[in-house]
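User: Structure tokens for this complex, please. No commentary.
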Amino acid sequence: MTRIHFLAPGFPLAEFVAFFVILGLLELRFRERANELHNTNRKLQEMQAEFLLMSRELQESKARLEEAQRVAHVGYFIWDLKTDRVIWSDETFRIFGLKPQDEPIDLARVGEMMHPEDREFVFRTAEEAIRSGVQVDCEHRILRPTGEMRVVHSLGDLKKDSSGQPYQMFGTTQDITDRKRAEEALERSQFYLSEGQRLAHMGSWAASSLGVRGSGDLNIYWSDEVYKIFGLDPQNGPPNLEQYLAAVHPDDRASMAKSVRMMHEQRCGCDLTNRIVRPNGEVRYIRCVGVPLLEDGVFKGFVGTTMDVTEQELLTQELRRERAYLREAQCLTHAGSWAANFVTGQIFHLSDETVRMHGFDPSEGAIPFERFFNTVHPEDQPGVKAALESATRAGTDYDIEYRVCRANDGSIRFFRSLGHHNPSGEIGNYIGTTMDITEQKRAEQERERLRQLEADLAHTNRVNMLGELAAALAHEIKQPISAAITSANACLRWLAHDPPDLERARAAATRIEEDGNRAADVINRLRSFYKKGATPERRMLDVKDIVQEMTVLLRNEVVQHSITIHSELDANMPNILGDRVQLQQVFMNLMLNAIEAMKDTGGELTIRSGLSPEGELLISISDTGVGLPLKNLERIFDAFHTTKPQGTGMGLAITRSIVESHGGRIWATANQEAGATFHFTLPREAEAHA
Amino acid sequence: MKSPAGPIVFIIDDDRGMRQSIQDLVESVGLRAESFATGEEFLKRKRTYEPSCLVLDVRLPAMSGLDFQRRLDEAGMQIPIIFITAHGDISMSVRALKSGAVEFLTKPFRDQDLLDAIQQALQRDSAAREFQAEIHDLHERYGALTGREREVMTHVVAGLLNKQIASEIGASEATVKIHRGHVMQKMQAGSIVDLVRMADKLKLSPRK
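Assistant:
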């Protein structure tokens, strides 16, 4: 082809050139395209080969997926939202207890297989997801054709078309029945555990380290109950070491810190009881037990329990305190307690005091029954043995006294032992107390000795009193006799006068007679004192006479101490039946008593008579002296009770015994102004006879 | 200086029979007697200037006879006392006699013993009273001397010569002689020896 071109004027050269250029470019493109096509063809071939490969791989992968689904009990489903038909994977069919099939199944059919109680919930969840476009995630129950119930976990994703309209849901269904059961069992056991912990006030903990090193983080797990015990909020998480120690009672903090350090360093367990302070200030006792956790010999941390033992601790402390009190009480009263079997010689319980009382050392440990028995005084051993044997045989209680030679120093002590037979126990089982009654025993002996002395003194007192009365009477006799002698002398002198003064002589002689009679009276009284006799002689007596005699007898005492005696005696007072000497003694004692009370001050002694409301003769002897002792007023009539330095304490005792032997009563009252009054009654003649 | 009524015996005994019989006995020998039941009664009686003595029972109401004796002493009533007692002991009698009792008699006593004791007591009392009267008299005479005369008298009884006295008191011998005469006259002294005895009784101590 020839290409001659003429360029005429007006020839569109530019267009012409452009045409060829474009033609050339087109050709170039064509060639490029042809190359591309070729290349593509080759690529396609390669791809085909690759596809074949992939298809094979896909087959394998699909099989693997099936296998995986089967193993994991996970199936998938494809839900066509337009047709409401569902395609299930083989495993899904198996999960639902059906034979795998390729045909899709109706949604309604799927719904039937849901557990009736969950059906509504599942569809609602699905509709909700479709409407809002979120993923479905729910657990629900299904019923297999056999009626078996399974629990499944379904997840579903929505597929949307270009307009954003969901047209399909693709999801998985996993059979989680076994896991669920395990979970429930775990939950149940955890519930039981936590409930148990709650009831027992016991929590558990586990810690991988104890925070001793580094950050102070305990790396600890606390069960709810531990938080509760510490009064802390689980929301805040477990404490670090510093916080933990801060919760411990200040007094226990140092030892707790030390224990923690030791556990850490030596990988050892712990069993500590210490106090904590709750945030509200309440103090609780907790017992913390921890053990190191080893796995194949490798230390993994600690596990342990924390228990609130406040109640137990308080009880324990109280028990301990009470035991201390009991010990103290036994020690103070020298009473020990014990429990033993007399047949087998077995000892179940021995208080320290029991051991000590027998002269053993409580720290030397168990002491056989035989050694206790050997401390019994040899003379008392047969008696004790017999008493125990007979009580054991009869199964009765016993109460015995015996002597013991203490094991340590051989000192002799008096014991009283009370044994109580335990009827429900074995033969010979006794519990009891043993008391050291040595002091009581000695006091008893002393009392007995005093009683004897009292009796002796009562006798001596009587003898002494008679001696004193005799001396007083001798003085009384001397007085009239001296007067009579002097009067006789005067009489003689009057007669010797020149002329004899008969008048004066007669007067003197008259006085002699008077004084002679006076002396005779005294002697009569003296005789009545000596004529005591062993048995009291009851005769009709006029109390006025006795008062008169006593007033005379005590005149010296009275004048010596500037005392005056007033008698206000009823002239018509009845006679009484009594022993003269004894009643003299009563008056003598009471009047001497009154004089004694006034000897430093002087005063008045008044004797009154009257009748008691019961019609008895009532005699009162009052003084204006020091008065009665305020305390022990009721004891003043007791033998040996005396407020006087030189008193024997017998006077009022004898007085009372005489008054009472006459059927009367005696008592004392304080006077309104000064001094005291002693009153006594004596039954009148008629009653006395009866 | 006996009073015309004669000596008087006081009896204090709380035993009526006793004091009556003693009073009667005393009266039977012609002496006056007064008896009292208590010391108080006796003290109330007007004091007498006749020779007298006291028969006192040791055991008195309110106060023992020994205490009463002391009380009389303290009151300046010097009267001889004869104690009587129904049961005296040695220590009591020693105490009584030491404090000036004339006698200590135990009842019953022989009447003559009591009467002798009374006689002795009355004599002692009248002697005492005479002595007291003389002393009283001397005091009156001595009281009549002037100061100068007393001075001279002191020197005279000390045995100084007139010349010595004159130089001692700074006067002339003649003046001393006049004083000396007055002293002898006023003191009613018959001799120097008399005057010395008087000074002795007046317990004048010679001036050195």
